[in-house]
Amino acid sequence: MIRVLLADDEHLIRGAIATLLGLEPDIEVVAEVARGDLVAQAVRDRRPDVIVLDIEMPGMDGLSVAETLPGHAMVMLTSFGRPGHLRRALAAGVRGFIPKDASADELATAIRKVHSGGRYLDAEMAASAMMAGESPLTERERGALALAAQGAPVGEIAASLHLTEGTVRNYLSSAITKLGATNRINAIRAAQEKGWL
């Protein structure tokens, strides 16, 4: 049996996935959690063979969770096939990446493939990621833009990143230019659509 941990904050979806996977003769859902910050403890307690993670969860997003669990077999579920998310997931060691609207059969296939050491990537998501390319943003530009996306003013961003306000303005301006945006809001939107933020 392939022991699976499901992490998804949407109770109905998580329950439906667990029920459908429970119909598979070789898959057993051994744990379900609704928050990303509960995954590590559930992994220690239940020792799953494969972890199925939603990207958007409270407590800790699925990409951050994956980065804290190196060496574990993981499949990422997402409603949004953003290229940056796929690249970040692969860099964190995630070997399966499929959309939430995939069939239960496709998810079961992905779990089996990842469990056996292979990769399972949704073809359309992989093609989008290849076409989008790497993020043009530096880590500092991404950090400043991420805080701006949360509504932080320049002074607060500067304090959070231990930079001067002028340096923060330069990072934001550079990010706007690199993303071909006309202002900070458009830059944030562009980076979020690509999954770079």
Q: What is the terminal-to-terminal distance?
A: 37 Å
Rg from C-alpha positions?
18 Å
Helix content class: 40-55%
SSE run: EHEHEHEHEHEHHHHH
| Anisotropy-based shape | elongated
Major beta-sheet overview: 6 strands, parallel
Structural class: alpha/beta
Low-confidence stretches: none
Q: How confident overall, as mean pLDDT?
A: 92
Strand residue percentage: 15-25%
Number of strands: 6
- Output the number of helix runs: 10
Would you kindly provide a written description of the structure presented here, covering whatever features stand out?
The chain has 197 residues and is an alpha/beta fold. The protein has helices at residues 11-22, 39-46, 62-68, 83-91, 104-115, 123-132, 139-149, 154-161, 165-178, 184-194; strands at 2-7, 27-33, 50-54, 73-78, 96-99, 120-121. It has a six-stranded parallel β-sheet with strand order 2-1-3-4-5-6, with helices on both faces. Strand 5, helix 5 (104-115) and strand 6 (120-121) form a beta-alpha-beta unit. Helix 7 (139-149) crosses helix 8 and helix 7 (139-149) packs across helix 10.
Brief overview:
By secondary structure, the chain is an alpha/beta fold. The chain has helices at 11-22, 39-46, 62-68, 83-91, 104-115, 123-132, 139-149, 154-161, 165-178, 184-194; strands spanning 2-7, 27-33, 50-54, 73-78, 96-99, 120-121. The protein has 10 helices and 6 strands, in the order βαβαβαβαβαβααααα.
Task: Describe the protein's topology.
Blueprint: E1 2-7, H1 11-22, E2 27-33, H2 39-46, E3 50-54, H3 62-68, E4 73-78, H4 83-91, E5 96-99, H5 104-115, E6 120-121, H6 123-132, H7 139-149, H8 154-161, H9 165-178, H10 184-194
Parallel strand pairs: 1-2, 1-3, 3-4, 4-5, 5-6
